[in-house]
């Protein structure tokens, strides 16, 4: 995987070519002060931010005012640091949300804050106001990775990685209620569609294995007619939403490499040659992998982000010292020596 391949998967690099086949979106350049705010340790929402929908911010008839939270009110929240202030960016963000119908899906150049849905009220990435956007971005490790290590898995020289200037952007996509059963990830190697995977493998959907042939045929046609000759690289991944037979929606592009989740494939398979099934590679029929039965369901990949980090370290064995501390704490508790102000957990993502 090369830096150029990562840059070609940045949203603003591919959206102009494929805007007729994907969800309506707006790209907003990120000011440096906002990037610094996202990378700062403390979670403090900008001054004056209201949890109010942009679509009805000018009217009070459609919303119970008792449910409106003023994050700047000292009686409700005493900030541990000076609240940041981005008046021009805030105004642009509000207007964009309103222009997209009052409900948006946020992401940066490459990643969406899917690991932070645990902090939202409805456990989704639907944002109706600026505070929703700020809170999701600020709580996401995926977003931090975009900002600090976008080329971590690239094979280019380290000096080139450090010298490559990234123009960071906030992408707001018009919110659509998408059924996760209809999402698929497609893997392209040497301009050949070598594999397709069910996008959400934490669920079993009976219709997928029952309609495998039709799904593969639709995705192949979409790849050859829409994607193949319009994307600049030979190796990449793309996600599609198959609304019904013959109707597909492009969702995103991702680099072909470890930084992208292989889902029901391993990267050893994807980078090898065993997935090719025909001597004539142009006639290759990609395999569609899906959850074949309820027993094949895998765990939600984002579930661990909602748990205290110490619990995860203990259960995985990544930090044995924390297990020792836990056992020592239990011994003290049994001996009546446990102090009421012992701190044993640190929440990840805050």
Characterization of this structure:
It is a single chain. By secondary structure, the protein is of the alpha+beta class. The protein has 3 domains: 24-174, no CATH class; 180-296, no CATH class; 308-350, no CATH class. The chain contains 12 helices and 8 strands. It has a 5-stranded mixed sheet. The two termini are 31 Å apart. Mean pLDDT is 82; it is low at 50-66, 73-77, 307-316 and 337-350.
In short:
The protein is α+β, with helices and mostly antiparallel strands and about 350 residues long. It has 12 helices and 8 strands.
Shape: globular
User: How far from one another are the termini?
Assistant: 31 Å
Structural class: alpha+beta
Mean pLDDT: 82
**H and E string:** HHEHHEHHHEEEHHEEHEHH
Domain count: the total is 3
Which strand-content bin applies to the residues? 5-15%
The largest pleated sheet is described as: 5 strands, mixed
If strands are numbered along the chain, what order do they take across the biggest sheet? 7-6-4-5-8
Helix content: 25-40%
